[in-house]
Amino acid sequence: MIDFAGQDFDVEEIFGSAGAISKGYPAYEDRPQQKQMASAVYNALHNHRHLAVEAGTGVGKSFAYLIPALEIAKQHECRILISTYTITLQEQLINKDLPFLSRLLDNNFTAVLAKGRNNFVCRRRLEFATRRGQGLFDSDMATLIRLGNWAKQTEDGSLSDIGFSPSPQIWQSVMSEHGNCKGRNCPHFNKCFYWRNRRRLESAQIIVANHALLFSDLVLRQQNVSILPEYRYVIIDEAHNIEHVAEDHFGLNISDGRVSFILNGLYNQKTKKGLLARAEYAEAVELVKSCQNAQADFFKAVGRWFEADRGNGSTRPGFVSDCISEHIKKLRLGLAKLAGGIEDADEKFELLRFAEMLGGLEADIKSFLSHDDKDCVHWVESEKNKRKTITLQSAPLNPAANIKKCLFEEFESVILTSATLCTGEGKGGQEFNYFAERNGLDDFDKLKLGSPFDYQKQVVMYIEPDLPEPNAAAFAEAAAEKIRKYIKQTSGSAFVLFTSYQMLQQFAEMLGDWFSENSIELLVQGAGADRAELLRRFKEDTGSVLFGTDSFWQGVDVPGAALSNVIITKLPFAVPTHPLIAGRIEHIKTKGQNPFFSYQLPAAIIKFKQGFGRLIRSKTDTGIVVVLDSRIASKGYGREFISAIEKCRVEMAD
Ligand code: SF4
Is residue 231 lining ligand 1, measured as CB closer than 6 Å? Predict the structure, then answer.
């Protein structure tokens, strides 16, 4: 046991070859990078500094921030929030790393995994839904009865404990919600799952959460509301993702589905079910119907505009006329009036909840149509599915100012870490410039630590300099030939990473027969099985090959022989014509900067590093990385991709 109370933080005593960790974990290896990181994290927390640490694979990042965090939480008697992007990492921290440290350190701490409020069932709403029963839902009552039985037995009361999948409509009617909770006045308060979890969070020194929950909390804190109890410091792992998570929290998303979900919850004309499906609510039902008609007109108009638009879907203020928000307002006011005259407190709560959702929808539609947030890009997306789902979306040109305001200006010290924060070798910390600029970090300490693995021995990168460029017509055939060659070289065991689903499908069609003829299992993202299932099968069948797009470039951990070959088909530049990217490019130009070098290239380098990083997950892993995009050799900027990754053998293929 080790106790640092009143002493300076001595990394050797914990991380050294004869330190505390090595005593508790015989396979432990002393890594200078881990010690450097732990010292830097401790100093930053202690001295109230923000810190960005890029730590290569194998540094042992999690212990390097957990141990200083536990020490600071103890010294300052405060709570620290640790946020990660993936559930895999949250589970590793809460089920493995923190219990290990609790046994090792003389530090009687509690760590709790925070879940969003909507993950918990609300006993009061479940009781109400069961009471109202058949008239409320399109779905059958069996699920509701099953939920009721589950709620009697579950300890946790959250979605992850259910073991079956209630429809979104049913779950949204029984989940715990801010603004639809009676708190201490609720008869279920003492046994309430959400509040029980909240009390556990309040007694914890370490809260583990995901980035989405962190940002929901940060945004609400700006309005003096919070989801999580107070915390003094924030540690963000997988920090390369915070820009994208923040984007979602500072933009708008108005889909046909979102509107239908609210209106059908009130009254579904087809099934004649919903909260208002009662004779005494006939007047309000008429208001719902006129809203539904207005919804159809509005989205038809948006669809017509989208089809006629010769651009990329970017909108101008008033690009269609607002034929819907007045109807939503009337319905909202109608529901509020109705709620005012109702005795049943639960029914009143439900009506007010719908009124609140309609208020949010009305405000979002008005804001979108007027483009009242000038720092956002506004655009329309239409999915080419059967229903041609239409979505009105907006996102900040640069979320840096928003992140700075709600995160860096609010907390004394924020630690940000990932294996991919830097965009090149740089000098004097300049390699952090892109990350800092996109995320609103002004005054911060920085540390870049390479991997302790021997990449020179473990990896060979092959570049195909003579292939046509990816946009050339001849690329697909030539690249398919190379994929066959390199898959044969490693007898499968490969990830083939694409930059779009369309490209992935094209190659899956071209190569499907070849894989069958060679008895190699080909796993294709988007062809039925979900991501977790694909990964499970890939790990099980060590000779299989996985074709993946976006989500397989990062956060996937396949150590050992199952993965010995990563083929990068195209340098991962974002599509420049996408409205958000195009808007950002224009915005950067107006500032007199070069958007390619200040935005598109660094963003692609970060993603390239993520893809490259899939190969080596332990010091015994070996394999090849193949780059089929010849621009890495022919263009001047190609060098920047190579200099940004761990130093390894790079060979130009003949
Ligand atoms: S306290 Fe709130 S969340 Fe809990 S059961 Fe009651 S109303 Fe639902």
Answer: no
Cβ atoms within 10 Å of 265's Cβ, excluding its own: 23
10 Å CB burial of residue 138 (0-12, 13-18, 19+) is middle
Low-confidence spans in the chain with pLDDT less than 70 = 1-8, 134, 137-140, 384-387, 425-428
128: Cβ below 6 Å to ligand 1? Answer: no
pLDDT of residue 526: 86
The Cα–Cα gap between 214 and 231 comes to 11
Helix axes 475-489, 501-517, angle to 10 degrees: 50
What single DSSP character describes residue 82?
E
The domain made up of 1-110+204-246+399-452 is a member of CATH 2.60.40.1180: no
By CB atoms closer than 10 A (0-12, 13-18, 19+), residue 248 is middle
d(CA 615, CA 496): 11
Those residues with Cβ within 8 angstroms of residue 457's Cβ, 6 or more apart along the chain or in another chain:
622
Distance from residue 187's CA to the centre of ligand 1 (Å): 8
What distance in Å separates the CA atoms of residue 390 and residue 488, rounded to the nearest whole number? 43
DSSP state of 181: -
CA 84, chain centre distance (Å): 9
CATH 1.10.3720.10 fits 455-652, yes or no: no
Nearest-atom index, ligand 1, CA of 183:
1
What residues contact 640, with CB distance under 8 A and at least 6 apart? Answer: 423, 424, 601, 605
Query: What's the number of CA atoms in the CB half-sphere (13 Å) around residue 408?
Result: 22
For position 416, what pLDDT does the model report? 98
pLDDT at 77: 93
Look up the ipTM and state it.
Answer: 0.99
Counting from 1 in the atom list of ligand 1, the atom nearest the Cα of 189 is 1
In this structure, the residue with its CA closest to atom 4 of ligand 1 is 192
Residues 6+ apart with CB under 8 A from 581: 574, 575, 600
**Is the CB of residue 104 less than 8 Å from the CB of residue 24?**
yes
* Ligand 1 neighbourhood includes 219 CB (under 6 angstroms): no
* Nearest residue (CA) to ligand 1, atom 6: 186
Burial bucket for residue 50 (CB in 10 Å: 0-12, 13-18, 19+): buried
Per-residue confidence (pLDDT) for residue 25, from 0 to 100: 81
Atom 2 of ligand 1: nearest residue by CA position: 181
